[in-house]
Amino acid sequence: MLDKPAQCSPCELARICAGFVPPWGNAKALIRFCGEAPGADEAVEGMPFVGESGRLLFNAMAVAQIPSKLCERCKGTGGTFPDTCNWCRGSKRDFSESVYVYNLVQCRPPNNDFSVIEENYGEINRCQKNYVAPAPEGSVTFMVGGKSLMWHFPGYTSVEVWAGSLLHGSPNS
């Protein structure tokens, strides 16, 4: 589990949330994925999307042939690719040059209770400003979860209604 950086100290969420999970990947990548908050696996590993949803996501990226490379850990194994390698996300590849992956907030809410974050909604802005790189021109951000959709596009209240839709605009516009 990663320690929270100093800039988290004034944050109300940092007082009650667990771990710290910074964004991962290439900040200039044109493909971006935004989750809601770190899950249990992410809080332990200190990386976003290393749990089951991450394995699904990164396997899908491998199928889509998004450019990748072997992770440094797996390069050292001579290509044996341990099944437990969270860095390779089960897809046996490192997509860190091709994508940027982040969450709305960088710490795990107690009991994964997102209402704690909703009660401190302004802290999402603090996390985004302090840790998340601005979206490059021409980039596409995939919203992974209803909370990320609602934060980026206020007024869009249900991920089920908008699933598979292409929404235009800039984050939080």
Task: Write down the Rg.
Answer: 16 Å
Main beta sheet: 4 strands, mixed
Number of domains: 1
Globally, the shape reads: globular
- Overall number of strands: 4
Strand order of the largest sheet: 1-3-2-4
CATH class: Alpha Beta
Determine the number of helices (DSSP H or I, runs of at least 4 residues): 8
Structural class: alpha/beta
Could you state the CATH homologous superfamily? Uracil-DNA glycosylase-like domain
Instruction: State mean pLDDT (0 to 100 scale).
Output: 76
State the CATH architecture.
3-Layer(aba) Sandwich
Q: What is the element string, with H for helices and E for strands?
A: HEEHHHEHHEHH
Beta percentage is 5-15%
Helical content (DSSP H or I, runs of 4+): 25-40%
Q: Provide the low-confidence segments as ranges.
A: none
